[in-house]
Amino acid sequence: MIPKTKIFLPFFSILCNVIFNFFFIDFSEAEERSSIKVTRSQVQQIEKHLLEQQEELLSIDIKEKGILGEIERLEKDMALNRESLRGLSSKIKKISG
Question: Which residue spans traverse the membrane (predicted)?
Answer without folding.
Answer: 7-25
